């Protein structure tokens, strides 16, 4: 058996055995740890075949796993491919052709790659979004303001290939070893382009260098917190999350980022008492709520999640988001702001939550955007800025 077919068989075995209970990258790591006969090139090739399967499996679910892998390789390839050369020479000869032509050959619709089209936010173009699942999103970084020019000089000296998206946002091919040139969190942060764009909703809302009291209530790894400190400078920062282990990792990241003056606490924000018992008044000028969500706007990076997602979870996430935002509003000053963010493409998690909040509470919508990552190989996100009126 050729090495190409051996890799195909291994990828088929992995896909059949994987049940979605772990991130696929971790599952692969564990699989290869137990099967040490695979070298680095083998591992890379097998992983690529698996990801090709997950990118197209919803569109070709009537075929067996091996056939879906071959079809995934054909649609994601931009040059000739050894697997196609062996299994489908006719396809291999046109692997370089545009996706639209290859879809015609396979009698497939772009929309079929994402089966939850009816749940999408209205602003999303279904065909373009579907095709985006054939591409791995880029690696985006945000250069931090201190030492901005020196970081650019270091990258140029190292001859790393990248694209300037704007003054501080750079796009790299995935796998680029930026950390070998720049110091993570000190010089730059890994942050998707549209995650960086969410802070744009605060433009002209707060004066740079004016003191501002900010609570990042679902802080996770702290990327939004670091960004708001970099942008608004004089930030009195509070961060919270539901697990202490998350906050411990966040503390390490803040230390590397030279952020010292902040307060952190663990809290389940679905419980009103978690807020009312801690904040006797309404202390915050801005609450950033990067809410727990389906993560559907990031599935181009983790397509296995698309394969295992249960659409009943959309309503579950929406209810969770409404509970959290309802509770954190009580901590915002009159005239203060709530910045609501998700990395979801689903209307129920996005506009519907905003509509619910505005109808029920004294909030005025200032700005709202679906940030379309599929146009630039980035994540798709949603952000809405609301002002507390009384």
Give the structure's gist in a few sentences.
The protein is α/β, with parallel strands linked by helices and 390 residues long. It has 3 domains: 3-108; 139-190, no CATH class; 196-388, Vaccinia Virus protein VP39 (Rossmann fold, 3-Layer(aba) Sandwich), CATH 3.40.50. It is built from 16 helices and 11 strands.
Description:
- The protein is of the alpha/beta class.
- The protein folds into 3 domains: 3-108; 139-190, no CATH class; 196-388, Rossmann fold.
- Helices cover 39% and strands 17% of the residues.
- The strands form 2 sheets. The protein has a 7-stranded mixed beta sheet with strand order 7-6-5-8-9-11-10, sandwiched between helices. It has a 4-stranded antiparallel beta sheet with strand order 2-3-1-4, with no helix packed on it.
- Helix 1 crosses helix 3 (40-56) and helix 4 runs antiparallel to helix 7.
- The chain is globular, with a radius of gyration of 23 Å.
Q: Note the gap between the termini.
A: 72 Å
The average pLDDT is 95
Note the beta-strand portion.
15-25%
CATH-wise, what's the superfamily of the largest domain?
Answer: Vaccinia Virus protein VP39
N to C succession of SSEs: HHHHHHHHEHEEEHEHEHEHEHHEHEE
CATH topology of the largest domain: Rossmann fold
Q: What is the strand tally?
A: 11
Count the DSSP helices: 16
**Widest beta sheet: strand line-up:** 7-6-5-8-9-11-10
